[in-house]
Amino acid sequence: MAEFIASGLPTQRGHEFFSSAEGAVSAGAWDSTAYAEVKGPYSVDEFMILLEGSLDIELEDGSTQTFKAGNGFVIPKAAVVAWKQSEYLRKFFFIHDNTDSPPAEAGLQAMLVDPSLALPKVARQDPTLYESEVPDMGMLTMYQDPTKKFLAVIWECSPMKRVATTIERSELMHILEGSGSITNADGIVFDFRAGDTFLVPVGMGYQWQNDEYVKKIFCSYTP
Fold this sequence. Notes:
Blueprint: E1 5-7, E2 12-19, E3 25-32, E4 35-37, E5 40-41, E6 45-52, E7 54-58, E8 64-68, E9 72-75, E10 80-85, E11 89-96, E12 111-112, E13 137-144, E14 150-157, E15 160-161, E16 165-166, E17 170-177, E18 179-183, E19 189-193, E20 197-200, E21 205-210, E22 214-221
Antiparallel strand pairs: 1-4, 2-3, 3-11, 4-10, 5-10, 6-9, 6-11, 7-8, 7-10, 9-12, 13-14, 14-22, 15-21, 16-21, 17-20, 17-22, 18-19, 18-21
């Protein structure tokens, strides 16, 4: 990694808590002391949620985008950027590292998954997916890779309860507002609330329920 360091001698630590069977995606936590990288094309698609610290990403045109604790953002594969952090930083990450996947279209850069944006309403929904009434739902896709398998999304939903199923994607989600629960195939209930970040792996028994309005940002990968 030394050849990518422009300045600083960082101490970095990481823990991977999920990796897909085919190795295309992984998720975990990472932290580092201050350092800066040489500008160049980013090697993977990466969705991040900053937990502590701040980060400057220098873009290809020389401008800088700043991300702070609490922000979720994406750096697309092949985006030409330079990573610059002047302080300790800690993050959750969700990485798409599939060598068969083409890079994103030219000109894409690091992008904030901005929860303040207006979300288009989901107009058509299958009522058989719900044990409850069909909810009011809004969703905005901020980024999808060329394969359309890796997505970063802002989502909101009125109270609802889904039919129990098996989830067909791996999803790292960060709850912005509201609370609810997920019940797995063994009947174990996982309660969540605003501020929580968690991952649901592909193939898990899955029943989502929220008794109040919920808003989240998430990144998913569908094999």
